[in-house]
Write a structure and sequence with these properties.
By secondary structure, this protein is of the alpha/beta class. Helices cover 44% and strands 17% of the residues. Helix 1 packs across helix 13, helix 2 packs across helix 13 and helix 4 packs across helix 5.
Length: 330
């Protein structure tokens, strides 16, 4: 099945409510919400002034779309008190909590935290930090001490990838994960993969070395992560350390690392750090022209997801559908 149709079909099984804090000033968000709610992929809460949005976009409100003017909402005082209770041990004052709730991203995260919405999608007009910082402060992890990370989904017409989907993890949050951190990132990526796709996950731990062809602190970290992952999750096909060409090209894989388990068919690429992850992700998006969805969060108790600022309406729509699917597990 077409990847897009597959994701849409899963979202339609139980459309969840998503909040969009940038709806008041993002045409792409509004267009994605129009399409997504009409297809029953999700329900939407748009933050913004309803009168201004009507003048700009025409009528939006219907049974699947709610518009909240967060600046005038009677929830602000309640949310500010909750933020103060949550963050006072960090030195946050009551006035600072009142100031934070004036920020639409904090207001949106509180809507998610308190169950008014099931997930949040933003980042089209703002930085990744503006999306994830409030979430890291206000939204719990799935388990105590969960490492919150991200993956990005890529797919499209591409000879090297044989038009199949691929994950790159982590590109946005964990700057320099330890070997243990990489194992957790990989496991969360496998779980998300299995949520979305029927194809078997195949995990490659990437490096500038293939199969002990060099030594360095970074290479040793990827080696250690590979071994830890294989011991803990023997049911998952995984190997490393390896270069990108070995991970996704069967011919090169056979030449450079003949005994590896992936055989050049990796679909989950685990990168050593956020630098390499971001560079690889942007290369796949800009040079290869692949559809890019995410960063998609991994580890939150409720999904908070981030669009690239270059995201098309279709990419926003896909991320929103995936957010709805993630919410179905709550």
């Amino acid at each position: 099945m077409n990847i897009k149709k597959q994701i849409f079909k899963m979202a339609q099984q139980d459309a969840k409510t998503l909040v969009f804090p940038e709806a008041g000033y993002s045409n792409r968000i509004v267009e994605a919400v129009r399409i997504g709610t009409s297809k029953n992929l999700f329900k939407a809460i748009l933050l913004g002034d309803e009168s201004e949005m009507f003048l700009k976009h025409g009528s939006l409100a219907n049974e699947n779309i709610e518009i909240i003017n967060y600046e005038k909402s009677n929830l602000k005082e309640t949310f500010a008190k909750e933020i103060f209770q949550l963050r006072q041990h960090k030195g946050l004052t009551e006035q600072q909590a009142l100031d934070l709730i004036e920020n639409p991203f904090y207001f949106a995260c509180m809507l998610v935290r308190d169950g008014y919405a099931d997930g949040m999608v933003s980042g089209v007009e703002n930085t990744t930090a503006q999306t994830f910082r409030p979430a890291l402060e206000l939204i719990k992890g799935q388990q105590p001490n969960t490492l919150i990370s991200t993956t990005e989904l890529f797919f499209g017409r591409n000879r090297a990838l044989k038009n199949k989907p691929i994950f790159v993890s982590d590109c946005a949050l964990v700057e320099n994960p330890t070997a243990e951190g990489l194992v957790e990132i990989a496991k969360n990526s496998v779980d998300l993969w299995r949520m979305l796709f029927i194809e078997e996950p195949k995990v490659a731990f990437l490096s500038y070395s293939t199969n002990k062809s060099a030594d360095s602190e970074s290479i040793n970290k990827m080696r250690e992560a590979t071994e830890l992952f294989k011991k803990r999750y023997p049911d998952v096909i995984a190997d490393g350390e390896m270069q990108l060409d070995t991970a996704i090209n069967p011919t090169i894989s056979l030449k450079k690392f003949p005994d590896n388990k992936i055989k050049g068919e990796a679909n989950i690429l685990i990168v050593p750090d956020i630098n390499s992850g971001s560079i690889l992700a942007k290369s796949l998006q800009i040079i290869s022209g692949l559809t890019c969805v995410g960063p998609i969060s991994q580890g939150f108790s409720r999904p908070i997801n981030d669009c690239a600022r270059s995201s098309s309406v279709e990419e926003i729509l896909l991320l929103s559908a995936i957010t709805s699917i993630q919410s179905q597990l709550d």
